[in-house]
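Appendix B, Record 12. Input sequence as logged:
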Amino acid sequence: MTAFPTGVSIVTTSTQDGAQWGMTCTSLCSVSLDPPVLLVCLRGNSPTLNAVRDSGRFAVNLLHEQSRPTAELFASGAPDRFDRVAWYAHAGAAGPHLTHSSHTIADCSVVTTHEVGDHCVVLGKLDVVTQLRAQRPLLYGMRRYASWPPFDEEQEFIKRFPRARRQACAVPYPKEAP
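Logged structural output:
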């Protein structure tokens, strides 16, 4: 599957005791438009998956083209990863929003999960989609990172997803990464 390029995201969630969990995910796709449902595949023994199951919610942070270091950090499993990136979790967020690394964030509620081999397929209903900035997505394929050629991302997003519930970025996101 390395020859199949895909977008790069980070799935995040929070536990009831306030712990933050997250992992890099390239296994992501849209399942349905009505209701809007996403599919993510998470490693079966990951603490992030356990936290998603316990909370029943998760955020999908769609990374922009300059976020390779964040993708690699969250793929590494480093225990201090949330100390090394800017993030914000406002009331109602399904998980931490990686504010400097993402161009769009989808807050989801778990619909169902299915064990498949050493991974778990998680279906999540989109509750809110927040577009932070118009920026090209980070892609991964052939064991390397890349980005789309330039185009007017915001106009394209609006044209392609007129029914998506977009939330204006009115929350006071931090201006600088730690």
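The chain has a mean pLDDT of 86.
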